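[job 4417] fold queue: 2 targets
>>> target A
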Amino acid sequence: MKKNLCLALLLIAALSTTMNAQRRERSEYDPMEKPNIVKINLTSLFYKNISLQYERILGEKISVALGLRFMPKGSLVFTNTIDQLASADSTSLSDWKASSYAITPEFRFYPKHAGKGFYIAPYIRYRNISLDLPVDYRDDNNAQQHVSVTGNLSSLIGGLMLGSQFNLGKMVTLDWYIFGLQYGISNGKLDIATSKPLSANDQADIRSSLADLKSASSSFNDINYVVTSNGGSISGKFGALGFRGFGLNLGFKF
């Protein structure tokens, strides 16, 4: 009788210890305690982009996220430096302007705990880019020519990214985009207007350059172009492989 009582007491003690350990483990990190995380991408600020993401934890190992990125119209990164190194009579790249926005829905799987540690994230992205690319040059008659190139490019992209998220406290996280591969289909059109009529030779040179570009890769087979004395247009669809990653996001949990 005493032996059975001792065994029962030992069993109760073991179960109690196990349950306490499990409670302590859960109390150390509970994904659903603060299931909302709002983040800002610190790396994208260097490229003049404002990139925000909202992540919602749905369970022990899964979450969904929605990213919004916006780049106001302005000069491209490093163009001022390139202009300083280039010759004085070349096109000023710092005059080229671009703006863009992107929307990125994302699903995340965390092998251990949602919102913490390594994750795998399939995603899709819609991206739209507006371009204003002025070009100055001298034509074959040695006349100064100004060309205005404006256009729009939209892309639908799918990809898979690997990353890791660290808790810096109860309310602060650091989300590291490690590396991801993506493939997208882009549609776009560029309208070209010249300040003076193009000569026949200039028109022929432009057509030849565009024909070379089109034949350089099967990715450009769907590109069409029109060249006239007053400019022309380039439009088409093409696919491209790219990557996403190397980003640091500061997050706030609630």
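>>> target B
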Amino acid sequence: MSAVVLASDRLKVTITPDVGGTITGVEHRGLGASVLGTVPWLPETTPLDPDSVRDEPVWLTRFTGGWPLLFPNGCDACMHAGVFHGFHGEASITPWQAEATPNAVRMTRRFRTVPVEMVRELSVEDDVLAIRERVRMLGDAPVKVMWCQHATFGSDLLAGPFQIETGARSVLVDDRADPPANPLRPGVSSRWPMVPGKDGAYDLSRPKGRVAAGACLHDFDAAWAAIRRLDNSVAAVLSWDAALYPYAWFWIELGGTMEAPWHGNGRVIGLEPSTTWPASGLAEAERRGGRLLSLQPGMEVKTVVRLHVFKPRGPVFGVNAAGRALFRA
């Protein structure tokens, strides 16, 4: 199936079922503003076999900068429980069966790498995108998986000075990746938003200059994260179930990666609810004592993730039950 477009009077959402069911665009129609990330290359539009995705460069050929789903693996390709899992997992680059209506799409995939079926129902409700996912375990023996919403933001949202706001109380900096443009000290833990940096304290809520860095948000008072333009022209807030996703991978690419295919032209921030940390693939995460999601025979897991795109009235301090941003009076 070619790209699916969902729309309300306020929101337009574009999805590509053939390549991972990726959400490639979210635009607020009234504000004329797009909020998902883009990449400085032309992505391929054909799906990949999961066995062929053995490293990040191959996976990036299909990456649009939008919002893929990572399942049952996240980050490094690996062998786990006798099965090869490609970089960022089967769900992110293989086709999904899709049934679409004007304001909703239902996508289904029965996975090859794990005995699991997943159903994803995406709907647009005024200025909120709701993603309802259901995982059903079909196997006779338990399996361990990683499940991550690889939501990346950019476009008009990062076209001017911005601030990141979240219900996370703590942040842990990635201890494995330390690119030249990383201002953070690898492996340090701190209270949000101030983190020990290589040149003193660094404010993660307002990253500036050329930056390439990775961290993990955790210890959530409430599970949400927002990016707001400081001129209050547009904002987006993501909210989720912290019981399933106790972590949010936090990826900053602001012109900091000079290697191909970025060439210093990337401008993307990832706020990515996840079951697991570290973000190092199933095998390495398990070796390091990370939390994996264990699916038992007959088990069913349901969750809802929401994205609210709106014109803000100042700093966001939370979300309501419908996933809409809350502001201080």
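[job 4417] complete. Note on B: Residues 4-318 form a domain with the Beta-galactosidase; Chain A, domain 5 fold (CATH 2.70.98.10).
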